[in-house]
Amino acid sequence: MRSRSIALVALLLIARPAFAQKAGEGEKEIARVGSHVVFSDFALDKERAEAILDRVRMAYDFVAKEQRWAGDAALGHGVGVHVLSAERMKTISKTAKGVARGRDNFMITATFLDEERSDRTLAHELTHLQDRRHLVAKGARLPHWWDEGRAIAMGLAYEEKLRIKDPRYLDGIAKVASSVTVAEARKILEDDAYIPEKEMPSVFRMEAVGFYFLEFVRVERQLAREDFEPRLAKVVVRVGKGEKLEEACEAELGVGLEALRDAFYAHLERTQGKRERLKGTSLER
User: Would 124 be classed as within a structural domain?
Assistant: First the structure.
Protein backbone atom coordinates (compact mmCIF):
# COMPACT_ATOMS: atom_id res chain seq x y z
CA MET A 1 0.00 0.00 0.00
CA ARG A 2 2.84 2.35 0.90
CA SER A 3 4.55 1.78 -2.46
CA ARG A 4 1.28 2.58 -4.26
CA SER A 5 0.98 5.85 -2.31
CA ILE A 6 4.53 6.81 -3.21
CA ALA A 7 3.88 6.00 -6.86
CA LEU A 8 0.69 8.10 -6.82
CA VAL A 9 2.50 11.07 -5.28
CA ALA A 10 5.25 10.75 -7.90
CA LEU A 11 2.67 10.68 -10.69
CA LEU A 12 0.95 13.79 -9.35
CA LEU A 13 4.26 15.59 -9.13
CA ILE A 14 5.07 14.73 -12.73
CA ALA A 15 1.63 15.80 -13.96
CA ARG A 16 1.68 19.08 -12.08
CA PRO A 17 2.55 22.05 -14.34
CA ALA A 18 5.89 23.73 -13.69
CA PHE A 19 5.56 27.16 -12.14
CA ALA A 20 8.68 28.88 -13.38
CA GLN A 21 8.06 32.57 -12.84
CA LYS A 22 11.44 33.27 -11.29
CA ALA A 23 13.59 36.35 -10.83
CA GLY A 24 16.61 36.55 -13.07
CA GLU A 25 20.11 37.46 -11.97
CA GLY A 26 20.14 40.81 -10.19
CA GLU A 27 16.32 41.04 -10.20
CA LYS A 28 13.83 41.34 -7.37
CA GLU A 29 10.13 40.64 -7.16
CA ILE A 30 8.29 43.98 -7.19
CA ALA A 31 4.60 43.06 -7.32
CA ARG A 32 2.36 40.02 -7.57
CA VAL A 33 -1.32 39.80 -8.48
CA GLY A 34 -2.62 36.25 -8.42
CA SER A 35 -0.03 34.18 -10.27
CA HIS A 36 1.21 37.08 -12.43
CA VAL A 37 4.38 38.65 -11.07
CA VAL A 38 6.69 41.53 -11.97
CA PHE A 39 10.45 41.33 -11.50
CA SER A 40 12.93 44.12 -12.14
CA ASP A 41 16.66 44.76 -12.05
CA PHE A 42 16.17 48.30 -10.77
CA ALA A 43 14.08 50.13 -8.15
CA LEU A 44 10.75 49.94 -9.97
CA ASP A 45 7.85 51.60 -8.17
CA LYS A 46 5.37 49.01 -6.86
CA GLU A 47 2.37 51.04 -8.00
CA ARG A 48 3.75 51.18 -11.53
CA ALA A 49 4.50 47.45 -11.43
CA GLU A 50 0.89 46.71 -10.46
CA ALA A 51 -0.34 48.93 -13.31
CA ILE A 52 1.88 46.93 -15.70
CA LEU A 53 0.36 43.72 -14.37
CA ASP A 54 -3.11 45.08 -15.10
CA ARG A 55 -2.07 45.62 -18.71
CA VAL A 56 -0.49 42.17 -18.89
CA ARG A 57 -3.63 40.49 -17.55
CA MET A 58 -5.78 42.32 -20.09
CA ALA A 59 -3.51 41.27 -22.97
CA TYR A 60 -3.28 37.71 -21.61
CA ASP A 61 -7.06 37.38 -21.42
CA PHE A 62 -7.45 38.86 -24.90
CA VAL A 63 -5.11 36.31 -26.47
CA ALA A 64 -6.76 33.41 -24.67
CA LYS A 65 -10.20 34.60 -25.78
CA GLU A 66 -9.13 35.11 -29.41
CA GLN A 67 -7.70 31.59 -29.47
CA ARG A 68 -10.79 30.30 -27.67
CA TRP A 69 -8.45 29.03 -24.98
CA ALA A 70 -10.22 30.82 -22.10
CA GLY A 71 -10.40 28.36 -19.21
CA ASP A 72 -7.88 25.99 -20.82
CA ALA A 73 -6.05 24.01 -18.13
CA ALA A 74 -2.73 24.52 -19.93
CA LEU A 75 -3.04 28.24 -19.22
CA GLY A 76 -3.87 27.76 -15.56
CA HIS A 77 -0.97 29.76 -14.18
CA GLY A 78 0.42 33.21 -14.72
CA VAL A 79 3.53 34.75 -16.18
CA GLY A 80 6.67 36.39 -14.96
CA VAL A 81 7.06 39.88 -16.40
CA HIS A 82 10.68 41.03 -16.24
CA VAL A 83 10.68 44.82 -16.53
CA LEU A 84 14.30 45.61 -17.30
CA SER A 85 16.59 48.58 -17.65
CA ALA A 86 17.79 49.33 -21.19
CA GLU A 87 21.31 48.27 -20.20
CA ARG A 88 20.14 44.87 -18.95
CA MET A 89 17.89 44.30 -21.96
CA LYS A 90 20.82 44.79 -24.32
CA THR A 91 22.56 41.82 -22.72
CA ILE A 92 19.53 39.70 -23.71
CA SER A 93 18.85 41.20 -27.15
CA LYS A 94 20.55 44.07 -28.92
CA THR A 95 17.44 45.03 -30.87
CA ALA A 96 14.26 43.53 -29.35
CA LYS A 97 12.10 45.50 -26.93
CA GLY A 98 10.41 42.31 -25.68
CA VAL A 99 11.58 38.68 -25.55
CA ALA A 100 9.67 35.57 -24.44
CA ARG A 101 11.63 32.98 -22.49
CA GLY A 102 10.31 29.47 -22.14
CA ARG A 103 6.63 29.07 -21.23
CA ASP A 104 6.33 31.39 -18.26
CA ASN A 105 8.50 34.49 -18.57
CA PHE A 106 9.06 37.42 -20.86
CA MET A 107 11.42 40.37 -20.69
CA ILE A 108 10.50 43.89 -21.72
CA THR A 109 12.33 47.20 -21.54
CA ALA A 110 10.91 49.57 -18.92
CA THR A 111 11.12 52.69 -21.09
CA PHE A 112 9.36 50.91 -23.96
CA LEU A 113 6.34 50.33 -21.71
CA ASP A 114 5.81 54.09 -21.73
CA GLU A 115 5.02 53.86 -25.45
CA GLU A 116 1.47 53.11 -26.56
CA ARG A 117 2.60 50.48 -29.07
CA SER A 118 4.08 48.35 -26.28
CA ASP A 119 0.63 46.81 -25.74
CA ARG A 120 1.05 45.11 -29.11
CA THR A 121 4.29 43.61 -27.83
CA LEU A 122 2.58 42.36 -24.66
CA ALA A 123 0.02 40.44 -26.75
CA HIS A 124 2.79 39.24 -29.08
CA GLU A 125 4.98 37.78 -26.33
CA LEU A 126 2.01 36.31 -24.45
CA THR A 127 0.99 34.48 -27.63
CA HIS A 128 4.42 32.83 -27.63
CA LEU A 129 4.02 31.74 -24.02
CA GLN A 130 0.48 30.45 -24.47
CA ASP A 131 1.43 28.48 -27.60
CA ARG A 132 4.44 26.93 -25.87
CA ARG A 133 2.35 25.78 -22.93
CA HIS A 134 0.48 23.48 -25.29
CA LEU A 135 3.64 21.81 -26.64
CA VAL A 136 3.63 18.96 -24.13
CA ALA A 137 4.79 15.94 -26.19
CA LYS A 138 8.51 15.19 -26.22
CA GLY A 139 10.16 17.03 -29.10
CA ALA A 140 7.00 18.98 -30.01
CA ARG A 141 7.88 22.27 -31.63
CA LEU A 142 6.68 24.73 -34.24
CA PRO A 143 8.72 26.47 -36.94
CA HIS A 144 9.91 29.97 -36.18
CA TRP A 145 7.90 31.54 -39.00
CA TRP A 146 4.72 29.99 -37.55
CA ASP A 147 5.49 31.22 -34.03
CA GLU A 148 6.17 34.74 -35.20
CA GLY A 149 3.34 34.88 -37.73
CA ARG A 150 0.78 33.99 -35.05
CA ALA A 151 2.27 36.39 -32.53
CA ILE A 152 2.26 39.25 -35.02
CA ALA A 153 -1.39 38.55 -35.83
CA MET A 154 -2.39 38.63 -32.17
CA GLY A 155 -0.37 41.76 -31.52
CA LEU A 156 -2.04 43.55 -34.43
CA ALA A 157 -5.49 42.34 -33.35
CA TYR A 158 -4.92 43.69 -29.85
CA GLU A 159 -3.63 46.94 -31.25
CA GLU A 160 -6.83 47.19 -33.31
CA LYS A 161 -8.97 46.51 -30.24
CA LEU A 162 -7.21 49.30 -28.35
CA ARG A 163 -7.38 51.57 -31.42
CA ILE A 164 -3.64 52.06 -31.48
CA LYS A 165 -2.09 53.05 -34.80
CA ASP A 166 1.52 52.29 -35.68
CA PRO A 167 1.66 52.62 -39.50
CA ARG A 168 5.43 52.18 -39.70
CA TYR A 169 5.20 48.64 -38.37
CA LEU A 170 2.50 47.61 -40.85
CA ASP A 171 4.31 49.41 -43.66
CA GLY A 172 7.45 47.41 -42.88
CA ILE A 173 5.58 44.11 -43.03
CA ALA A 174 3.81 45.14 -46.24
CA LYS A 175 7.14 46.09 -47.82
CA VAL A 176 8.52 42.61 -47.12
CA ALA A 177 5.34 40.94 -48.38
CA SER A 178 5.51 42.97 -51.59
CA SER A 179 9.15 42.11 -52.29
CA VAL A 180 9.62 38.52 -51.08
CA THR A 181 10.68 36.09 -53.79
CA VAL A 182 9.76 32.44 -54.09
CA ALA A 183 13.36 31.49 -53.30
CA GLU A 184 13.37 33.55 -50.09
CA ALA A 185 9.94 32.25 -49.09
CA ARG A 186 11.11 28.65 -49.58
CA LYS A 187 14.18 29.29 -47.46
CA ILE A 188 12.10 30.73 -44.62
CA LEU A 189 9.15 28.33 -44.76
CA GLU A 190 11.18 25.19 -45.42
CA ASP A 191 14.99 25.38 -45.19
CA ASP A 192 15.32 27.67 -42.17
CA ALA A 193 12.01 26.81 -40.53
CA TYR A 194 13.47 25.42 -37.31
CA ILE A 195 16.84 27.20 -37.21
CA PRO A 196 17.38 29.59 -34.28
CA GLU A 197 16.59 33.15 -35.27
CA LYS A 198 20.13 34.37 -34.66
CA GLU A 199 21.30 32.35 -37.66
CA MET A 200 18.96 34.18 -40.05
CA PRO A 201 20.20 37.17 -42.07
CA SER A 202 16.98 39.10 -41.28
CA VAL A 203 14.76 38.10 -38.39
CA PHE A 204 12.21 40.75 -39.32
CA ARG A 205 11.85 39.41 -42.86
CA MET A 206 11.31 35.91 -41.46
CA GLU A 207 8.61 37.21 -39.09
CA ALA A 208 6.92 39.27 -41.81
CA VAL A 209 6.87 36.39 -44.30
CA GLY A 210 5.45 34.08 -41.63
CA PHE A 211 2.63 36.51 -40.96
CA TYR A 212 2.01 37.15 -44.66
CA PHE A 213 1.89 33.41 -45.41
CA LEU A 214 -0.69 32.82 -42.68
CA GLU A 215 -2.71 35.79 -43.95
CA PHE A 216 -2.56 34.29 -47.45
CA VAL A 217 -3.86 30.97 -46.05
CA ARG A 218 -6.70 32.75 -44.24
CA VAL A 219 -7.77 34.54 -47.43
CA GLU A 220 -7.28 31.43 -49.55
CA ARG A 221 -9.50 29.40 -47.20
CA GLN A 222 -12.01 32.27 -47.08
CA LEU A 223 -11.97 32.48 -43.29
CA ALA A 224 -12.58 35.46 -41.03
CA ARG A 225 -9.90 36.10 -38.43
CA GLU A 226 -12.22 35.21 -35.56
CA ASP A 227 -12.58 31.72 -37.05
CA PHE A 228 -9.08 31.34 -38.47
CA GLU A 229 -7.09 32.05 -35.30
CA PRO A 230 -8.91 29.39 -33.21
CA ARG A 231 -8.24 26.88 -36.01
CA LEU A 232 -4.54 27.71 -35.87
CA ALA A 233 -4.72 27.30 -32.09
CA LYS A 234 -6.08 23.78 -32.61
CA VAL A 235 -3.18 23.09 -34.95
CA VAL A 236 -0.84 24.11 -32.11
CA VAL A 237 -2.60 21.74 -29.71
CA ARG A 238 -2.33 18.86 -32.19
CA VAL A 239 1.38 19.48 -32.75
CA GLY A 240 1.79 19.80 -28.99
CA LYS A 241 0.39 16.29 -28.59
CA GLY A 242 2.81 14.85 -31.12
CA GLU A 243 1.20 15.28 -34.54
CA LYS A 244 3.24 16.58 -37.47
CA LEU A 245 2.40 20.09 -38.63
CA GLU A 246 1.42 18.78 -42.07
CA GLU A 247 -1.19 16.46 -40.56
CA ALA A 248 -2.44 19.06 -38.08
CA CYS A 249 -3.03 21.60 -40.87
CA GLU A 250 -4.86 18.99 -42.91
CA ALA A 251 -7.13 18.22 -39.95
CA GLU A 252 -7.96 21.80 -38.98
CA LEU A 253 -7.68 23.73 -42.26
CA GLY A 254 -8.72 21.02 -44.70
CA VAL A 255 -5.44 21.32 -46.62
CA GLY A 256 -1.96 20.06 -45.77
CA LEU A 257 0.94 22.43 -45.21
CA GLU A 258 2.79 21.37 -48.36
CA ALA A 259 -0.19 22.20 -50.59
CA LEU A 260 -0.65 25.54 -48.82
CA ARG A 261 2.99 26.45 -49.36
CA ASP A 262 2.80 25.48 -53.04
CA ALA A 263 -0.27 27.70 -53.48
CA PHE A 264 1.61 30.54 -51.76
CA TYR A 265 4.64 30.16 -54.05
CA ALA A 266 2.34 30.20 -57.09
CA HIS A 267 0.71 33.38 -55.72
CA LEU A 268 4.13 35.02 -55.38
CA GLU A 269 5.03 34.01 -58.95
CA ARG A 270 1.94 35.53 -60.53
CA THR A 271 1.71 38.75 -58.48
CA GLN A 272 3.91 41.82 -58.17
CA GLY A 273 3.76 44.91 -55.97
CA LYS A 274 1.48 45.82 -53.10
CA ARG A 275 -1.81 46.05 -54.98
CA GLU A 276 -1.71 42.48 -56.32
CA ARG A 277 0.21 40.83 -53.52
CA LEU A 278 -1.77 42.15 -50.57
CA LYS A 279 -5.31 42.09 -51.95
CA GLY A 280 -7.78 40.77 -49.39
CA THR A 281 -5.25 40.57 -46.57
CA SER A 282 -5.07 42.78 -43.49
CA LEU A 283 -2.07 44.50 -45.10
CA GLU A 284 -4.11 45.86 -47.99
CA ARG A 285 -4.61 49.63 -47.94
Answer: no
Single-letter residue type at 97: K
Q: How many CA atoms lie within 13 A of 113 on its CB side?
A: 20
Kindly report the backbone phi and psi dihedral angles of residue 85, in degrees, each rounded to the nearest multiple of 5, phi listed first: -70, 160
How many structural domains is the chain composed of? 2
Asked if 59 and 88 touch (Cβ cutoff 8 Å), the reply is no
Which of 218, 209, 217, 216 has the alpha carbon at shortest distance from 189? 209
Q: Which residue segment(s) compose the domain that 52 sits in?
A: 18-115
Query: Do 171 and 257 share a domain, yes or no?
Result: yes
Same domain, 102 and 158: no
Q: What is the pLDDT of residues 164-218, one digit of tens each?
A: 988 899 999 999 999 999 999 999 999 999 988 877 779 999 999 999 999 999 9
User: pLDDT digit string (tens) for 101-124?
Assistant: 999 999 999 999 999 999 999 999
